[in-house]
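Hello again,

I reread your note about wanting to compare the complex against the isolated chains. To keep things tidy I'm splitting this into two emails, and this first one only covers the full assembly. Below are the input lines as submitted, including protein chains and any nucleic acid or small-molecule components. They are followed by the predicted structure of everything together. The single-chain runs will come separately.
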Amino acid sequence: NRFQLEMQTVTLIPGDGIGPEISSAVMKIFETAKAPIRWEERNVTAIKGPGGRWMIPPDAKESMDKSKIGLKGPLKTPIAAGHPSMNLLLRKTFDLYANVRPCISIEGYKTPYTDVNLVTIRENTEGEYSGIEHVIVDGVVQSIKLITEDASRRIAEYAFEYARNNQRNSVTAVHKANIMRMSDGLFLRKCREVAENYKDIKFTEMYLDTVCLNMVQDPTQFDVLVMPNLYGDILSDLCAGLIGGLGVTPSGNIGANGVAIFESVHGTAPDIAGLDLANPTALLLSAVMMLRHMGLHDYGNKIQTACFDTIRDKKVLTKDLGGNSKCSEFTADICRRIQDLD
Amino acid sequence: NSLLLITYKMPLLQPPPAKYGGRHTVTLIPGDGIGPELLNHVREVFRFSCVPVDFEVVHVNSAVETEDDINNAITAIRRNGVALKGNIETKHTMAPSVKSRNNLLRTSLDLYANVMHCQSLPGVQTRHKNIDIMIIRENTEGEYSSLEHESVSGVVESLKIITRNNSLRIADYAFKLAREKGRRRVTAVHKANIMKLGDGLFLQCCREVASGYPDITFDSMIVDNTTMQLVSKPQQFDVMVMPNLYGNVVSNVCAGLVGGPGLVPGANYGHVYAVFETATRNTGKSIANRNIANPTAMLLASCMMLDHLKLYDHASSIRNAILNTMNETRLHTADIGGQGTTSEVVQTIMRFIQSKGQLTSEY
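Full-complex prediction:
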């Protein structure tokens, strides 16, 4: 008899715009693959709590606290809604301190760069995004970048653990300690300290500008990159650009207390929402990342192989990938391949 | 070929008058790593081409904590008005109070505009073609303000300063340059969605200046999207203006796109002084003294300097020789995929200069 894996619950946040349809695509593919996942759908649109503070709905928080694992589609950016960015709220609620983006070239989706295989790990709670700004005098603004020992150590530890758990060979700390001597200097020192406990992983340091310079000439020289918030924001998007953009890039956010939320990082694409034209690849690859995080590597590999095979075959591609098939057709092709793989 | 006749006149600056019978004196700071050898090659080429420039060499020792050396260099530049420099290493084994010498130089001399012209070179193989981007980067404030303190143990604050004056100043420089060079679009790069006050101020200043140049299109782009666009479709960019750190990122990305740090020259302009160097300011310690560094970027920087001194003929002659040499693939240095040596490249450049019938000295 087949060993029956216990069903694990995942909180699913479909999101806005194309969110619901790409979430359905992912659920369908998971069902075909017989992945032992039970989806619990929740909405995270902010509500005003008792103290007048904005918060995510209590049933969403409860679900996440119990399941610990979330999969999230794109969320609308509120312009005049009065409440802060939902992504920011989620980050603060679950202390999502590490943003992880594996960037792997997709065979069949050609970009000027081939053989990209790296991971960016970005500190996601402090740094340049502290939100602390002051007008000193009229015409002079000061923005504060905050680097702390604790956050730097935490992200460095995550990076080395990730490298070890995912069979990666090296971790590179990205910094500008020549200019920001104290802040990036502190970050670098913590990375060096943590590296001492991971002698099996090679540790290097590189200036942000040198990384940018080398990345666009030869991305194959990079493996795992760890860095503070702003550099991470820029580099993770740069690397996404190398492999084809946000429509095909997976992303995961690791929080304290074992919480992890995986998400697609593209927009809600309101112009094609509901028209069965969306590309579910980014969300699907994020879901694959999630399966690997949960230790369900076989399911993850199977689904990823099917997805890459469909793209490589070029017969059923969505418009953004260069074809003119529907989202449902693309999804069906992946499902078919999964069944064939079984 | 318009590529060969580029001049870099800056109408905003008056170069110092030639002294002592038509010869200029320029401060030369060798720096560390590959700086000294590359600048020796510049002197070699200048001597060979009878360029009327004398170099006043000022050494800056990066291993000492005192600021005497860098202050001497700054004084020399104030005296001569123009400098050519290699990068001075910042040893971060030293205390954080020992600031970057390069940064001290830029801020003391108020070299507020860092200008980099990134162009695809015909002889160089790259993934992207037809790139022609001018990057104007604010060079004195922003994240490079060197204002840091440890407020409580284990918590460091680093201040990024954006001022209206400097933002207006750099935006004005960008638009003036765009108009002078006949460029059609200026894009401001920022992160004002997160740094609402700081980058918000920068963006607002750019908009204000833009309104005075209705002939030039102005738009803006968030920095992370910018890097993504640069690696997929760099041809969409024309002139870009941005604060200091984003300038660091964008200029390195662009240099990488057109072939690497060995190819692109850079210039730092203030109202009074001008300092020329390689665009990406690399020390290149690992390739120093091995005769493998690419002399192109530093030689092109020296041509920018000659244009600044109004020695246009010399600038064109050397520049044309460099571009002709670039077409000889077998001479390419390792950074652009070849096996040529630095001296082979320099000898060939000098041969091209001589063959054009210019007055040269023996070599």
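For quick reference: Chain A touches chain B through 55 residues (CB under 8 Å).

B.
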